[in-house]
Amino acid sequence: MKHSFDIVVVGAGPAGLAAATAVAEAGRRVAVLDENPRVGGQIWRASLSKVARDRSKERAVARFEASGAKLFSGHQIVDGDAAGALESWVAATQSLETFSFERLILATGARERFLPFPGWTLPGVFGAGGLQALVRSGYDIRGKRVVVVGTGPLLLAVAAHLKQDGARVVLVAEQAPLSQLMQFGLSLITRPGKIVQGLSLRAQLANAQYRTGCWPVAALGDGTVTGVRLSDGSRTWTEACDLLACGFHLVPNTELATLLGCEVGDHGVVVDADQQTSVASVYCVGETTAIAGVDAALLQGRIAGLAAAGRASEARTLHMQRDAERSFGRRMDRAFALRKEMLTLAMPDTIVCRCEDVRFSQISQAAAPGNGWTNAKLQTRCGMGPCQGRICGPALNALFGWKNTSVRAPLFPLPIAALCSSPLATDDATTLVTQEN
Amino acid sequence: MKPFDVVILGAGIVGSACAYECALAGMRVAVVEPAVPAGAASAAGMGHLVVMDDSEAQLALSHFSRELWRELREALPQTVEYEECGTLWVAADAEEMEEVLAKQQRYANSGIASEMLDERALLEAEPGLRHGLAGGLRVPQDGVIYPPTAAGYFLSVAQQRGAQLIQGKRPVRAAEGEVVFEDGSRLSAGWIVIATGTDTSLCPWLKIQPRKGHLVITDRYPGVVRHQLVELGYLKSAHSVSTDSVAFNVQPRKTGQLLIGSSRQYGELKRKADPEMLRRMLDRAVEYMPSLKQLSVVRVWTGFRAATPDKLPLIGPTPDSTVLVAMGFEGLGITNAPGAAKLVLHHLTGAAVPMDPMAFLPSRVARAEAVHA
Questions:
Q1: Which residues of B make CB contacts under 8 Å with A?
Q2: Residues A98, A1 contacting (CB under 8 angstroms)
Q3: Digit-coded pLDDT (tens) for B55-93
Q4: How many Cβ pairs within 8 Å bridge chains A and B?
Q5: Closest CA to B138 of B121, B157, B115
Q6: Which CATH number fits domain A2-111+251-333: 3.40.640.10, 3.50.50.60, 3.20.20.370, 3.40.50.720?
């Protein structure tokens, strides 16, 4: 099926919703594509709805729904061309659909970063956000002893949520040293709202320990995780657990932007004051440009929506606020910066690429001077499995400084049937152009 | 004295194999790679080790090379994923069955084992194939490898024997025993071997054209396909000189993944996969093996084969007595790399090869051109 819109937004998280709302309110025809069944993105989907009502989410969703923007859920973008078309895979109908546009706004969000440490691939070890999502979808965590390790503001949020759902959170181990976090905390004096949020999360954890300056050395267990060995630099000890949740802050999802030819920098997709990328028809907003949280995402979304709809000047008043949120993000990056010990956790036999079972020693052998990820990929296949380096890529970037610049369609695995002439598809279906809105 | 006996330009599978042979022969070797070793056609191809019988010269070279691969088998590291899965040439109809018979004769005359299969035997060998195919020919000693690590093996053996890898420098001139780099630096050697695949910037007189191909790799489905499957019409596709063509060509990887090909396009230089070509190629694959339709595609990529006018590689001396080439392997660079390296060594040292080296001389293309003119 083919669709045609003035503006297409990819991602229905806070940034995407804000962008689409602004576009629709400006009277332009806009579609929002998202792979999930519901709006909200990772952050709002996983929000602590049982813990506290999230009024900013409710407001944003209500305004989006009233705006006239059209939502396409369950659409996963597999290919695209900045000149004006995206191709999405719809699992529900097992078909590809095409969206043509004049302008595109990317709000593809971020994902958790994983760092390889011995035992991290044991059953029972989860990504922090992944475990939260699993519990959301029905996994019974009641009575399970959980240790949460890694870094970033997500750890506390996940721990609070898991506890709410009946888990016994034994320990939250934050690798960043307290001094570093204190600086971040002090810099938030100008932002009381954010501190209150942090304190209330802390309070909800009650008797669980939140320890800074300690990190996982190894996940332990024979067949499934039974404990985790931790270190604070001067001593190591073991905590018993049934589940280990780990996450090392977030990394932006830049694959689609890279495929479209947008410049990607160290923190994410590079944008100008109007959120426009190096490709004129493409804007980018939210965590995809740099990890800076929900407030930055909402502002950036609105700025890009107005700019893409031809009303950039109306958004100028928001620039200062947006820039302040960005600097909040940069402070957060500094607060949760990886300590050097995090980069030496992998042992020679630690698996780095789960898809292709590639171990650290194989990769370090291929990491000769002058050889980047391409050579390591060719020689070891790391990053060549179904996830296309989404998991090991950020780890390799942290460990070796490598960047994945080779992104190809399809961006996600597809059945062969989707790429050949399906006998089910009629000629009508492939030539039909529907007029939405 | 010159610092190197031979400098090899290009660390693809052919250049790496040449470095390996020259280093084993005791020469002082340098290998120049401006980008990533085995990062172009060697990384893009399937890694099918196959005896091709489309000409006598091709048969001799690919047979010789396949046997060299088989001899190397024990020495190759696990990561090369060598598997002697055999080729199964699939005949769709009675006409193609006649070709199976002729093919078997040609193989038998060269002492190459092969086995004819009727429809039933074909389906027993490969239950995923559709019913109603006529039969096929199994060539049990053909195999598959993962080419980048095979090239890496050749290179590392050469390096252990003292060969030097010069990486990240682009040569802009190669003549009279001297290589000149982009940055103005120079390297002199007794001989220069150009093995730069489709890149003819150092030897623009060679008639080599890039011929684009598409490949698809699936998720892991162990046991779904057992042999390298190739439709017998493949040769028609491979030999059509003007038009774009596709052929059914499926390879089981040791990982359980399937590689699905193949397409051939002249005059198409864009790297991006072409959805229309991809559709034609996969339609063809599904026509032979309907169950492929459900499998999940993990990646799609393209690559460029170095095609010559007569489908044979260009291996040997050039008018400049210090410069040799080993180029133009089309879709057989992986198979033919070890044999090509022996041919290069023959031209350098007079070492014997079990075929007529004249058939591959670069000068033949120029001669043929002159005759046509």
A1: 36-39, 43, 79, 148-149, 152, 167-168, 216, 218-219, 255, 260, 272-273, 275, 278-279, 282-283, 285-286, 292-301
A2: yes
A3: 999 999 999 999 999 999 999 999 999 999 999 999 999
A4: 83
A5: B115
A6: 3.50.50.60
